[in-house]
From TrEMBL:
It is a multi-pass membrane protein. SUPFAM superfamilies: MFS general substrate transporter. Its main location: membrane. The chain crosses the membrane at residues 21-42, 48-72, 84-105, 111-129, 150-172, 184-203, 239-259, 279-299, 306-323, 396-419, 431-450, 470-488. Residues 12-496 form the Major facilitator superfamily (MFS) profile domain. The lineage of its organism: Bacteria, Pseudomonadati, Bacteroidota, Flavobacteriia, Flavobacteriales. It comes from Flavobacterium cupriresistens. This is MFS transporter.
Amino acid sequence: MSKTSAKGIWKVISASSMGTMIEWYDFYIFGSLAVVLSTKFFPGDNPTAAFLSTLATFAAGFVVRPFGALFFGRLGDIIGRKYTFMATLLLMGGSTFLIGCIPSYETIGFLAPVLVLILRLLQGLALGGEYGGAATYVAEHAPEGQKGYWTSWIQTTATVGLFISLMVILVTKNTLSAAAFDSWGWRVPFWISIVMVGVSYLIRKNMDESPVFAKAKKEGTTSKNPLKESFGNRYNLKFVLLALFGATMGQGVVWYTGQFYAMSFMKTVMNINSSQVDSLLGIALLLGTPFFIFFGWLSDKIGRKYIMMSGMLLAILFYRPIYRTMYTTTDVEHKTEIIAKTTQTVENSNNGSSVTTTTKNYTDGTSAVEKTTYASKKEAQKNISITINPSDKWTLVFLVFIQVLFVTMVYGPIAAFLVEMFPTKIRYTSMSLPYHVGNGIFGGLLPAISTYFVTHAKEAGKPDFYLDGLWYPIIIASVCFVIGMIYIDTKNQTTHL
Protein backbone atom coordinates (compact mmCIF):
# COMPACT_ATOMS: atom_id res chain seq x y z
CA MET A 1 0.00 0.00 0.00
CA SER A 2 1.44 3.37 -1.00
CA LYS A 3 1.88 6.28 1.35
CA THR A 4 -0.97 8.13 -0.29
CA SER A 5 -3.35 5.19 0.05
CA ALA A 6 -2.14 4.56 3.61
CA LYS A 7 -2.88 8.15 4.52
CA GLY A 8 -6.28 7.87 2.86
CA ILE A 9 -7.30 4.70 4.67
CA TRP A 10 -6.23 6.17 8.03
CA LYS A 11 -8.42 9.19 7.33
CA VAL A 12 -11.34 6.86 6.63
CA ILE A 13 -10.61 4.80 9.76
CA SER A 14 -10.33 7.90 11.97
CA ALA A 15 -13.55 9.49 10.77
CA SER A 16 -15.56 6.26 10.82
CA SER A 17 -14.15 5.04 14.13
CA MET A 18 -14.65 8.33 15.96
CA GLY A 19 -18.30 8.57 14.95
CA THR A 20 -19.00 4.92 15.76
CA MET A 21 -17.16 5.20 19.08
CA ILE A 22 -19.29 8.20 20.06
CA GLU A 23 -22.46 6.31 19.15
CA TRP A 24 -21.38 3.41 21.37
CA TYR A 25 -20.51 5.86 24.14
CA ASP A 26 -24.00 7.35 23.87
CA PHE A 27 -25.58 3.91 23.87
CA TYR A 28 -23.61 2.56 26.84
CA ILE A 29 -23.83 5.58 29.13
CA PHE A 30 -27.31 4.29 29.95
CA GLY A 31 -26.01 0.81 30.85
CA SER A 32 -23.03 2.18 32.77
CA LEU A 33 -25.39 4.27 34.91
CA ALA A 34 -28.13 1.63 35.18
CA VAL A 35 -27.87 1.38 38.97
CA VAL A 36 -28.24 5.18 39.36
CA LEU A 37 -30.93 5.54 36.69
CA SER A 38 -33.08 2.88 38.39
CA THR A 39 -33.49 5.29 41.31
CA LYS A 40 -34.25 8.30 39.11
CA PHE A 41 -36.74 7.11 36.50
CA PHE A 42 -38.57 4.28 38.29
CA PRO A 43 -40.55 3.93 41.57
CA GLY A 44 -38.15 3.61 44.51
CA ASP A 45 -40.19 1.34 46.79
CA ASN A 46 -38.71 -1.83 45.25
CA PRO A 47 -35.03 -1.40 44.26
CA THR A 48 -34.72 -4.86 42.64
CA ALA A 49 -37.80 -4.30 40.46
CA ALA A 50 -36.55 -0.81 39.57
CA PHE A 51 -33.14 -2.16 38.54
CA LEU A 52 -34.71 -4.94 36.44
CA SER A 53 -36.99 -2.32 34.82
CA THR A 54 -33.92 -0.23 33.98
CA LEU A 55 -32.21 -3.27 32.44
CA ALA A 56 -35.39 -4.00 30.46
CA THR A 57 -35.41 -0.41 29.15
CA PHE A 58 -31.70 -0.79 28.34
CA ALA A 59 -32.52 -4.01 26.48
CA ALA A 60 -35.36 -2.32 24.55
CA GLY A 61 -32.73 -0.29 22.71
CA PHE A 62 -31.18 -3.55 21.54
CA VAL A 63 -34.47 -5.11 20.48
CA VAL A 64 -35.18 -2.36 17.94
CA ARG A 65 -31.68 -2.42 16.46
CA PRO A 66 -32.70 -4.91 13.72
CA PHE A 67 -35.44 -2.49 12.61
CA GLY A 68 -32.84 0.27 12.43
CA ALA A 69 -30.66 -2.11 10.41
CA LEU A 70 -33.49 -2.65 7.90
CA PHE A 71 -34.48 1.01 7.65
CA PHE A 72 -31.03 2.57 7.48
CA GLY A 73 -29.51 -0.41 5.65
CA ARG A 74 -32.01 0.14 2.84
CA LEU A 75 -31.12 3.85 2.73
CA GLY A 76 -27.40 3.02 2.75
CA ASP A 77 -27.74 0.68 -0.22
CA ILE A 78 -29.84 3.22 -2.16
CA ILE A 79 -28.44 6.69 -1.38
CA GLY A 80 -25.00 5.77 -0.01
CA ARG A 81 -23.00 4.91 3.09
CA LYS A 82 -21.81 8.40 4.02
CA TYR A 83 -25.11 10.28 4.36
CA THR A 84 -26.85 7.38 6.07
CA PHE A 85 -24.48 7.08 8.97
CA MET A 86 -24.32 10.86 9.32
CA ALA A 87 -28.08 10.73 9.97
CA THR A 88 -27.69 7.92 12.53
CA LEU A 89 -25.02 9.92 14.37
CA LEU A 90 -27.31 12.94 14.80
CA LEU A 91 -30.27 10.80 15.87
CA MET A 92 -28.17 8.99 18.47
CA GLY A 93 -26.58 12.16 19.83
CA GLY A 94 -29.88 14.03 20.13
CA SER A 95 -31.58 11.13 21.94
CA THR A 96 -28.70 10.75 24.42
CA PHE A 97 -28.66 14.46 25.24
CA LEU A 98 -32.42 14.48 25.85
CA ILE A 99 -32.23 11.49 28.24
CA GLY A 100 -30.02 13.70 30.39
CA CYS A 101 -32.75 16.37 30.41
CA ILE A 102 -35.72 14.23 31.52
CA PRO A 103 -37.08 15.11 35.00
CA SER A 104 -37.03 12.33 37.60
CA TYR A 105 -39.89 9.98 38.53
CA GLU A 106 -40.53 12.04 41.67
CA THR A 107 -41.17 15.11 39.50
CA ILE A 108 -43.27 13.82 36.57
CA GLY A 109 -44.27 10.29 37.66
CA PHE A 110 -44.71 7.54 35.08
CA LEU A 111 -44.07 9.99 32.24
CA ALA A 112 -40.35 9.73 33.15
CA PRO A 113 -39.86 6.01 32.29
CA VAL A 114 -42.08 6.43 29.20
CA LEU A 115 -39.92 9.25 27.82
CA VAL A 116 -36.75 7.32 28.63
CA LEU A 117 -38.11 4.27 26.80
CA ILE A 118 -38.98 6.34 23.69
CA LEU A 119 -35.53 7.91 23.54
CA ARG A 120 -33.93 4.54 24.21
CA LEU A 121 -35.80 3.10 21.21
CA LEU A 122 -34.56 5.96 19.02
CA GLN A 123 -31.01 5.20 20.18
CA GLY A 124 -31.47 1.57 19.17
CA LEU A 125 -32.76 2.52 15.72
CA ALA A 126 -29.78 4.82 15.19
CA LEU A 127 -27.22 2.21 16.26
CA GLY A 128 -28.92 -0.32 14.01
CA GLY A 129 -27.97 1.83 11.04
CA GLU A 130 -24.54 2.97 12.21
CA TYR A 131 -22.45 -0.16 12.53
CA GLY A 132 -23.22 -1.70 9.14
CA GLY A 133 -22.47 1.61 7.44
CA ALA A 134 -19.16 2.14 9.21
CA ALA A 135 -17.94 -1.44 8.70
CA THR A 136 -18.99 -1.47 5.05
CA TYR A 137 -17.46 1.95 4.43
CA VAL A 138 -14.09 0.93 5.86
CA ALA A 139 -14.06 -2.49 4.15
CA GLU A 140 -14.80 -0.91 0.79
CA HIS A 141 -11.78 1.36 1.20
CA ALA A 142 -9.44 -1.38 2.49
CA PRO A 143 -6.82 -3.06 0.24
CA GLU A 144 -7.35 -6.69 -0.75
CA GLY A 145 -6.03 -9.14 1.83
CA GLN A 146 -6.11 -6.59 4.66
CA LYS A 147 -9.83 -6.22 5.33
CA GLY A 148 -9.70 -8.06 8.65
CA TYR A 149 -6.97 -5.74 9.92
CA TRP A 150 -8.57 -2.47 8.82
CA THR A 151 -12.14 -3.31 9.84
CA SER A 152 -10.90 -4.48 13.24
CA TRP A 153 -10.29 -0.82 14.07
CA ILE A 154 -14.06 -0.34 13.83
CA GLN A 155 -14.42 -3.33 16.16
CA THR A 156 -12.50 -1.50 18.88
CA THR A 157 -15.04 1.34 18.95
CA ALA A 158 -17.67 -0.48 21.00
CA THR A 159 -15.17 -1.31 23.74
CA VAL A 160 -13.53 2.14 23.55
CA GLY A 161 -16.97 3.75 23.77
CA LEU A 162 -17.74 1.72 26.88
CA PHE A 163 -14.31 2.57 28.33
CA ILE A 164 -14.79 6.30 27.75
CA SER A 165 -18.29 6.17 29.27
CA LEU A 166 -16.82 4.59 32.41
CA MET A 167 -14.01 7.16 32.57
CA VAL A 168 -16.39 10.12 32.10
CA ILE A 169 -18.57 8.77 34.91
CA LEU A 170 -15.53 8.26 37.18
CA VAL A 171 -14.23 11.79 36.54
CA THR A 172 -17.68 13.27 37.12
CA LYS A 173 -18.08 11.33 40.38
CA ASN A 174 -14.64 12.35 41.63
CA THR A 175 -15.15 16.00 40.65
CA LEU A 176 -18.52 16.39 42.34
CA SER A 177 -19.65 15.52 45.83
CA ALA A 178 -21.69 12.34 46.28
CA ALA A 179 -24.81 14.43 46.93
CA ALA A 180 -24.26 16.59 43.83
CA PHE A 181 -23.68 13.56 41.59
CA ASP A 182 -26.82 11.88 42.90
CA SER A 183 -28.84 15.07 42.49
CA TRP A 184 -27.80 16.22 39.00
CA GLY A 185 -24.23 15.13 38.25
CA TRP A 186 -25.31 11.83 36.70
CA ARG A 187 -26.79 13.90 33.84
CA VAL A 188 -23.40 15.35 32.83
CA PRO A 189 -22.19 12.29 30.81
CA PHE A 190 -25.40 12.52 28.76
CA TRP A 191 -24.93 16.23 28.10
CA ILE A 192 -21.26 15.86 27.11
CA SER A 193 -22.23 13.61 24.18
CA ILE A 194 -23.78 16.50 22.23
CA VAL A 195 -20.36 18.21 21.96
CA MET A 196 -18.70 14.98 20.83
CA VAL A 197 -21.42 14.37 18.23
CA GLY A 198 -21.03 17.89 16.85
CA VAL A 199 -17.28 17.42 16.32
CA SER A 200 -17.78 14.01 14.70
CA TYR A 201 -20.48 15.38 12.38
CA LEU A 202 -18.12 18.08 11.08
CA ILE A 203 -15.46 15.43 10.40
CA ARG A 204 -17.84 13.05 8.63
CA LYS A 205 -19.33 15.86 6.59
CA ASN A 206 -16.04 16.22 4.67
CA MET A 207 -15.66 12.51 3.88
CA ASP A 208 -16.09 11.10 0.39
CA GLU A 209 -18.49 8.31 -0.50
CA SER A 210 -17.19 4.74 -0.57
CA PRO A 211 -15.36 4.21 -3.92
CA VAL A 212 -16.98 0.80 -4.41
CA PHE A 213 -20.50 2.20 -3.90
CA ALA A 214 -19.76 5.34 -5.95
CA LYS A 215 -18.61 3.10 -8.82
CA ALA A 216 -21.74 0.93 -8.56
CA LYS A 217 -23.95 4.02 -8.51
CA LYS A 218 -22.19 5.50 -11.53
CA GLU A 219 -22.65 2.23 -13.44
CA GLY A 220 -26.29 1.98 -12.39
CA THR A 221 -25.84 -1.35 -10.62
CA THR A 222 -27.12 -0.30 -7.17
CA SER A 223 -30.19 -2.06 -5.84
CA LYS A 224 -33.63 -0.52 -6.25
CA ASN A 225 -35.13 -2.79 -3.59
CA PRO A 226 -32.40 -3.93 -1.15
CA LEU A 227 -34.87 -5.56 1.26
CA LYS A 228 -36.37 -7.79 -1.42
CA GLU A 229 -32.99 -8.70 -2.89
CA SER A 230 -31.51 -9.39 0.55
CA PHE A 231 -34.28 -11.47 2.08
CA GLY A 232 -36.52 -12.43 -0.86
CA ASN A 233 -33.65 -14.14 -2.65
CA ARG A 234 -33.31 -17.67 -1.22
CA TYR A 235 -29.59 -17.90 -2.01
CA ASN A 236 -28.78 -14.63 -0.23
CA LEU A 237 -31.20 -15.39 2.64
CA LYS A 238 -29.26 -18.60 3.29
CA PHE A 239 -26.13 -16.51 3.96
CA VAL A 240 -28.09 -14.07 6.13
CA LEU A 241 -29.33 -16.93 8.33
CA LEU A 242 -25.88 -18.55 8.42
CA ALA A 243 -24.32 -15.25 9.46
CA LEU A 244 -26.85 -14.99 12.31
CA PHE A 245 -26.99 -18.54 13.69
CA GLY A 246 -23.42 -19.51 12.85
CA ALA A 247 -21.58 -16.35 13.92
CA THR A 248 -23.26 -13.20 15.27
CA MET A 249 -25.60 -14.93 17.74
CA GLY A 250 -22.69 -16.48 19.63
CA GLN A 251 -20.51 -13.41 19.17
CA GLY A 252 -23.27 -11.26 20.67
CA VAL A 253 -23.61 -13.22 23.91
CA VAL A 254 -19.84 -13.49 24.37
CA TRP A 255 -19.48 -9.72 23.86
CA TYR A 256 -22.15 -8.78 26.38
CA THR A 257 -21.10 -11.38 28.94
CA GLY A 258 -17.46 -10.35 28.89
CA GLN A 259 -18.15 -6.65 29.27
CA PHE A 260 -21.65 -5.67 30.32
CA TYR A 261 -22.74 -8.69 32.31
CA ALA A 262 -19.36 -8.71 34.07
CA MET A 263 -19.99 -5.11 35.14
CA SER A 264 -23.59 -5.77 36.21
CA PHE A 265 -22.55 -8.96 38.05
CA MET A 266 -19.87 -7.20 40.08
CA LYS A 267 -22.13 -4.30 41.02
CA THR A 268 -25.40 -6.08 41.80
CA VAL A 269 -24.48 -9.69 42.65
CA MET A 270 -21.04 -9.24 44.21
CA ASN A 271 -22.07 -5.81 45.66
CA ILE A 272 -18.72 -4.20 44.88
CA ASN A 273 -18.46 -0.41 45.10
CA SER A 274 -19.60 1.06 41.77
CA SER A 275 -16.54 3.28 41.27
CA GLN A 276 -14.19 0.35 41.92
CA VAL A 277 -16.03 -1.74 39.33
CA ASP A 278 -15.81 1.06 36.76
CA SER A 279 -12.06 1.49 37.34
CA LEU A 280 -11.13 -2.21 37.24
CA LEU A 281 -13.33 -2.81 34.20
CA GLY A 282 -11.72 0.21 32.53
CA ILE A 283 -8.25 -1.27 33.12
CA ALA A 284 -9.29 -4.66 31.72
CA LEU A 285 -10.82 -3.03 28.63
CA LEU A 286 -7.72 -0.90 28.06
CA LEU A 287 -5.47 -3.97 28.26
CA GLY A 288 -7.74 -6.04 26.02
CA THR A 289 -8.57 -3.55 23.26
CA PRO A 290 -5.34 -4.02 21.20
CA PHE A 291 -6.29 -7.67 20.73
CA PHE A 292 -9.21 -6.64 18.47
CA ILE A 293 -6.55 -5.42 16.03
CA PHE A 294 -4.40 -8.50 16.55
CA PHE A 295 -7.17 -11.01 15.84
CA GLY A 296 -8.44 -8.92 12.91
CA TRP A 297 -4.92 -8.99 11.45
CA LEU A 298 -4.56 -12.70 12.21
CA SER A 299 -7.85 -13.45 10.44
CA ASP A 300 -6.32 -12.08 7.22
CA LYS A 301 -3.57 -14.68 7.58
CA ILE A 302 -5.39 -17.83 8.76
CA GLY A 303 -9.09 -17.11 8.14
CA ARG A 304 -11.97 -15.70 10.19
CA LYS A 305 -13.89 -18.86 11.08
CA TYR A 306 -11.54 -20.70 13.44
CA ILE A 307 -10.58 -17.60 15.42
CA MET A 308 -14.24 -16.77 16.07
CA MET A 309 -15.17 -20.38 16.86
CA SER A 310 -12.20 -20.73 19.24
CA GLY A 311 -13.33 -17.62 21.13
CA MET A 312 -16.82 -19.09 21.57
CA LEU A 313 -15.49 -22.49 22.69
CA LEU A 314 -13.16 -20.95 25.28
CA ALA A 315 -16.04 -18.87 26.65
CA ILE A 316 -18.30 -21.94 26.88
CA LEU A 317 -15.66 -23.90 28.78
CA PHE A 318 -14.36 -21.21 31.14
CA TYR A 319 -17.28 -18.89 32.01
CA ARG A 320 -18.42 -20.87 35.06
CA PRO A 321 -14.91 -21.33 36.57
CA ILE A 322 -14.16 -17.62 35.96
CA TYR A 323 -17.35 -16.36 37.60
CA ARG A 324 -17.05 -18.80 40.49
CA THR A 325 -13.55 -17.44 41.17
CA MET A 326 -14.77 -13.83 40.84
CA TYR A 327 -17.54 -14.37 43.38
CA THR A 328 -15.56 -16.35 45.96
CA THR A 329 -12.59 -13.96 45.77
CA THR A 330 -14.59 -11.06 47.24
CA ASP A 331 -17.27 -12.94 49.21
CA VAL A 332 -17.11 -11.48 52.74
CA GLU A 333 -18.55 -14.72 54.12
CA HIS A 334 -15.10 -16.21 53.53
CA LYS A 335 -13.21 -13.31 55.13
CA THR A 336 -12.35 -12.63 58.77
CA GLU A 337 -14.15 -9.64 60.26
CA ILE A 338 -12.34 -7.33 62.71
CA ILE A 339 -15.13 -7.13 65.27
CA ALA A 340 -13.50 -4.31 67.23
CA LYS A 341 -13.70 -2.02 64.18
CA THR A 342 -17.38 -2.67 63.40
CA THR A 343 -19.53 0.45 63.79
CA GLN A 344 -23.27 1.01 63.56
CA THR A 345 -25.34 4.19 63.29
CA VAL A 346 -29.10 4.75 63.13
CA GLU A 347 -30.81 7.69 61.43
CA ASN A 348 -34.51 8.32 62.04
CA SER A 349 -36.65 10.47 59.74
CA ASN A 350 -39.85 12.40 60.39
CA ASN A 351 -41.99 10.00 58.37
CA GLY A 352 -41.27 7.09 60.73
CA SER A 353 -38.64 5.36 58.63
CA SER A 354 -35.07 4.72 59.78
CA VAL A 355 -31.74 3.76 58.20
CA THR A 356 -29.24 1.58 60.04
CA THR A 357 -25.70 1.80 58.66
CA THR A 358 -23.26 -0.94 59.64
CA THR A 359 -19.60 -0.64 58.63
CA LYS A 360 -17.44 -3.76 58.76
CA ASN A 361 -13.71 -4.19 58.23
CA TYR A 362 -11.85 -7.39 57.41
CA THR A 363 -8.31 -8.58 58.02
CA ASP A 364 -7.37 -8.55 54.31
CA GLY A 365 -8.22 -4.85 53.89
CA THR A 366 -11.75 -5.32 52.56
CA SER A 367 -14.53 -3.15 54.01
CA ALA A 368 -18.31 -3.29 53.66
CA VAL A 369 -21.06 -0.77 54.34
CA GLU A 370 -24.52 -2.22 54.83
CA LYS A 371 -27.50 0.14 54.88
CA THR A 372 -30.85 -1.24 56.02
CA THR A 373 -33.90 0.95 55.52
CA TYR A 374 -36.91 0.28 57.73
CA ALA A 375 -40.21 1.85 56.70
CA SER A 376 -43.60 1.37 58.32
CA LYS A 377 -45.63 -1.48 56.78
CA LYS A 378 -42.83 -2.20 54.31
CA GLU A 379 -40.21 -4.93 54.20
CA ALA A 380 -36.74 -3.79 55.22
CA GLN A 381 -34.51 -2.94 52.24
CA LYS A 382 -30.82 -3.78 52.39
CA ASN A 383 -28.08 -2.16 50.34
CA ILE A 384 -24.49 -3.43 50.59
CA SER A 385 -21.40 -1.75 49.15
CA ILE A 386 -18.10 -3.66 49.39
CA THR A 387 -14.76 -1.93 48.91
CA ILE A 388 -12.26 -4.60 47.91
CA ASN A 389 -8.55 -4.67 48.72
CA PRO A 390 -5.88 -4.07 45.99
CA SER A 391 -5.04 -7.79 45.67
CA ASP A 392 -8.69 -8.74 45.00
CA LYS A 393 -9.02 -5.83 42.59
CA TRP A 394 -6.16 -7.06 40.41
CA THR A 395 -7.51 -10.60 40.54
CA LEU A 396 -10.80 -9.29 39.13
CA VAL A 397 -8.98 -7.18 36.52
CA PHE A 398 -7.26 -10.37 35.31
CA LEU A 399 -10.49 -12.40 35.24
CA VAL A 400 -12.36 -9.70 33.32
CA PHE A 401 -9.37 -9.30 30.97
CA ILE A 402 -9.59 -13.02 30.11
CA GLN A 403 -13.25 -12.51 29.21
CA VAL A 404 -12.33 -9.49 27.07
CA LEU A 405 -9.84 -11.71 25.21
CA PHE A 406 -12.72 -14.05 24.33
CA VAL A 407 -14.59 -10.96 23.10
CA THR A 408 -11.71 -9.85 20.87
CA MET A 409 -11.49 -13.31 19.29
CA VAL A 410 -15.16 -13.43 18.29
CA TYR A 411 -15.56 -9.73 17.53
CA GLY A 412 -12.26 -8.66 15.95
CA PRO A 413 -12.70 -10.58 12.65
CA ILE A 414 -16.48 -10.45 12.33
CA ALA A 415 -16.88 -7.19 10.38
CA ALA A 416 -14.68 -8.46 7.55
CA PHE A 417 -16.41 -11.86 7.76
CA LEU A 418 -19.86 -10.28 7.29
CA VAL A 419 -18.83 -7.79 4.61
CA GLU A 420 -17.28 -10.56 2.51
CA MET A 421 -20.50 -12.60 2.57
CA PHE A 422 -22.62 -10.16 0.54
CA PRO A 423 -22.43 -8.26 -2.80
CA THR A 424 -21.95 -4.47 -2.87
CA LYS A 425 -25.47 -3.51 -3.92
CA ILE A 426 -27.16 -5.14 -0.89
CA ARG A 427 -24.21 -5.34 1.52
CA TYR A 428 -25.33 -2.64 3.99
CA THR A 429 -28.79 -4.22 4.39
CA SER A 430 -27.72 -7.89 4.30
CA MET A 431 -24.91 -7.67 6.87
CA SER A 432 -26.68 -5.23 9.20
CA LEU A 433 -29.67 -7.45 9.96
CA PRO A 434 -27.87 -10.61 11.19
CA TYR A 435 -25.36 -8.47 13.07
CA HIS A 436 -28.03 -6.52 14.95
CA VAL A 437 -30.30 -9.52 15.58
CA GLY A 438 -27.32 -11.42 16.97
CA ASN A 439 -26.08 -8.50 19.05
CA GLY A 440 -29.30 -6.60 19.67
CA ILE A 441 -31.65 -9.49 20.46
CA PHE A 442 -29.46 -12.38 21.66
CA GLY A 443 -26.72 -10.19 23.13
CA GLY A 444 -28.67 -7.14 24.25
CA LEU A 445 -31.20 -9.13 26.25
CA LEU A 446 -28.42 -10.95 28.12
CA PRO A 447 -27.97 -8.58 31.13
CA ALA A 448 -31.71 -8.57 31.88
CA ILE A 449 -32.21 -12.33 31.33
CA SER A 450 -29.09 -13.37 33.25
CA THR A 451 -29.83 -11.00 36.16
CA TYR A 452 -33.36 -12.43 36.34
CA PHE A 453 -31.99 -16.00 36.45
CA VAL A 454 -29.59 -15.07 39.27
CA THR A 455 -32.33 -13.28 41.23
CA HIS A 456 -34.71 -16.25 40.84
CA ALA A 457 -32.00 -18.76 41.88
CA LYS A 458 -31.10 -16.66 44.93
CA GLU A 459 -34.73 -16.48 46.03
CA ALA A 460 -34.94 -20.26 45.62
CA GLY A 461 -31.97 -20.64 47.98
CA LYS A 462 -29.50 -22.25 45.55
CA PRO A 463 -25.96 -22.23 47.03
CA ASP A 464 -24.31 -21.33 43.71
CA PHE A 465 -27.15 -19.04 42.58
CA TYR A 466 -24.69 -16.52 41.12
CA LEU A 467 -23.75 -18.94 38.31
CA ASP A 468 -27.30 -19.45 36.97
CA GLY A 469 -27.12 -16.32 34.81
CA LEU A 470 -24.36 -17.94 32.74
CA TRP A 471 -26.56 -20.68 31.31
CA TYR A 472 -28.03 -18.26 28.79
CA PRO A 473 -24.75 -17.25 27.08
CA ILE A 474 -23.30 -20.76 27.36
CA ILE A 475 -26.30 -22.38 25.60
CA ILE A 476 -26.56 -19.71 22.88
CA ALA A 477 -22.80 -19.79 22.20
CA SER A 478 -22.85 -23.61 22.11
CA VAL A 479 -25.62 -23.71 19.49
CA CYS A 480 -23.80 -21.09 17.41
CA PHE A 481 -20.49 -22.95 17.71
CA VAL A 482 -22.01 -26.19 16.39
CA ILE A 483 -23.79 -24.48 13.47
CA GLY A 484 -20.73 -22.39 12.61
CA MET A 485 -18.33 -25.33 12.66
CA ILE A 486 -20.58 -27.47 10.47
CA TYR A 487 -22.01 -25.00 7.96
CA ILE A 488 -19.57 -22.10 7.56
CA ASP A 489 -17.37 -23.07 4.63
CA THR A 490 -14.63 -20.45 4.30
CA LYS A 491 -13.06 -22.15 1.29
CA ASN A 492 -16.19 -21.82 -0.81
CA GLN A 493 -17.45 -18.53 0.62
CA THR A 494 -17.71 -16.00 -2.16
CA THR A 495 -15.83 -12.77 -1.54
CA HIS A 496 -17.78 -9.97 -3.21
CA LEU A 497 -15.40 -7.07 -2.59
